[in-house]
Design goal:
Layout lengths: L2 H12 L6 H6 L7 H9 L4 H8 L4 H8 L18 H9 L13 H8 L12 H10 L7 H5 L5 H8 L7 H8 L4 H11 L4 H6 L7 H9 L4 H9 L4 H5 L5 H7 L5 H8 L7 H5 L5 H9 L6 H10 L19 H8 L4 H8 L6 H7 L5 H10 L5 H10 L4 H4 L19 H8 L14 H8 L6 H8 L5 H5 L6 H13 L11
Helix pairs in contact: 1-3, 1-32, 3-5, 5-6, 6-8, 10-12, 18-20, 21-23, 22-23, 23-25, 28-29
């Protein structure tokens, strides 16, 4: 049997949804090569396989498991204290596939990372490197700094002190009087973000990257505001919630329409909103129409995530630090403004009745937002968005409600990605095993309607062997027999045999 068939069988069994734990554990053998890594990183796994992976002697296996986005992250907690710093770094960095929605890591894993004293015995990374991976991974929930502000461990209070503007006034006061001197100093330094004179005194060169961060987030003195206008560095002012009212009024009359768009929906805009509703730019006028219904910064942030992004936007889906009220979302769902209905559709908590109405909305972007965000989006909508908007396909395929049946009328679709979903539909009478596209043939060969006798023929064909090995109808003894051959060089049973 050729090496090509061996690799195809291994890959197929790796992703066979019906493969039991004893089959999958065999793929952890070094003789399985890349298949074991693909399995640990790329699919959901039974508990027995996870347990084997967590204590596997080969670091590559543990590193692959650390990147698995299908396994409950709580099951991966032992890897947060793995002897290998590289394993820890992989867990902190998260999956390399960059999904739109990233599940946050549990608090105990985050605490282990933030209180670690070294990077692990490998010596190739430090604890600081690992924490850096964590910050860039989007795996830290927005509530975490507030939760840690009163923690017993000073390293966690220190972390909270660096996230100053996400804390309450009471937490500010407690950290400024913290018993640990390093925490107190960090709190005092962070508190200067809200002191305009202190910000002015420490302002870096205004055209530097660090200055943009300061001007976007910190309280600013009149002198700093004037400097921004003089140097035409006003984009940060438009985003900064501490920007004073007189500066906002000037930004609302700025010649750059993009600046006017940025301020048009701010809840603190004041009388300038009425002026912007008469703006020569259509987008500015539209945003200004929204402004009277945006009363809080939480509401502003939710509108900002949606407005002006377009139907193919694949921005990360993030949990807000503070969520608007359910009543506000319900009002948005009934609004005449499509942007508000898009905002409502993007809230997973929207009641079923309102979600059902938005699934039939005349605005395509409303329907797309609902399909990508709401757990009750109807199957026909998920299917429609998959077919018409390829940009959203990777995300839709991760949704538990994504339909796997009802695709038969797409079997002749010109797009092979669509045909591949149709070929996998278990209600299909005859899977298209002769389709010209490789992915479609693989999907057809993995269709669970095929008999074990048919699968035996497909297993010997390079065009269909991987799909046949991934077919959930493949008998478990046959999976073991294929692995005997792939891992041990044993002869496979004759075609059609029952092992």
């Amino acid at each position: 049997m050729s090496d090509s068939l061996r690799e195809l069988w291994l890959r197929g069994i790796t992703f066979n949804a019906a493969a039991p734990a004893d089959v999958l554990i065999r793929l952890l053998d070094e003789a399985a090569g890349e298949a074991g890594l693909l399995m640990c990183e790329g699919r959901d796994l039974p508990d027995a396989v996870i347990d084997e992976g967590l204590c596997h002697p080969v670091g590559r296996i543990r590193r692959a498991l650390a990147r698995n986005l299908h396994v409950d992250p709580a099951r991966l907690a032992p890897l947060a204290s793995d002897p290998s710093g590289l394993v820890r770094a992989y867990l902190a960095g998260g999956t390399r596939f960059q999904p739109r929605w990233v599940r946050p890591l549990p608090d105990d894993i985050l605490v282990a990372f933030l209180t670690a004293q070294d990077g692990g015995e490998v010596g190739r990374v430090t604890e600081r490197d690992i924490v850096g991976e964590l910050w860039s991974s989007r795996q830290v929930p927005v509530s975490f700094p507030r939760d840690m502000a009163g923690h017993d461990h000073p390293a966690l209070r220190l972390y909270a002190a660096f996230q100053w503007q996400s804390l309450t006034t009471a937490q500010h006061d407690a950290l400024l009087d913290d018993p640990d001197p390093a925490v107190r100093e960090a709190a005092r330094e962070s508190n200067r973000q809200l002191d305009p004179e202190a910000v002015e005194a420490a302002l870096p060169p205004i055209d530097s990257r660090h200055a943009v961060s300061v001007l976007s987030t910190c309280a600013l003195s009149p002198a700093v505001v004037e400097l921004c206008f003089a140097d035409d560095v006003v984009h940060p002012l438009a985003r900064n919630r501490h920007t004073p009212a007189d500066a906002l009024a000037r930004l609302a009359r700025h010649p750059d329409a993009e600046i006017r768009r940025l301020v048009a929906t701010r809840p603190d805009l004041g009388p300038a909103a009425a002026e912007l509703r008469q703006d020569p730019d259509e987008d500015v006028r539209m945003r200004a129409r929204l402004q009277p219904s945006i009363r809080t910064w939480a509401e502003f942030q939710e509108v900002h995530k949606v407005v002006g992004h377009g139907p193919d936007c694949t921005c990360p889906i993030t949990q807000p630090a503070t969520e608007p009220s359910p009543d506000w979302y319900a009002t948005c769902a009934a609004s005449e403004e499509p942007v508000f209905r898009r905002v409502a559709a993007s809230w997973p908590g929207l009641p079923a009745e309102l979600a059902g109405a938005l699934a039939l909305d005349d605005d395509e972007e409303v329907r797309i937002q609902l399909a990508c965000h709401h757990p009750l989006a109807p199957p026909h909508l998920l299917l429609d968005v998959f077919v018409t908007r390829p940009a959203h396909r990777p995300h839709l395929l991760t949704l538990p409600a994504f339909p796997r049946t009802g695709w038969s009328h797409f079997i002749g679709h010109p797009d092979p990605e669509v045909r591949a979903l149709a070929a996998a539909d278990p209600t299909l009478p005859e899977p298209p095993l002769e389709d010209p596209d490789d992915a479609v043939r693989r999907a057809a060969a993995a269709n669970s309607t095929l008999t074990p006798e048919t699968l035996e023929t497909l297993l010997t064909d390079l065009r269909t062997a991987e799909g046949a090995a991934a077919n959930p109808s493949l008998p478990v003894p046959r999976m073991h027999a294929l692995l005997d051959h792939c891992l041990n060089g044993a002869a496979t049973p004759p075609t059609g045999a029952r092992c």
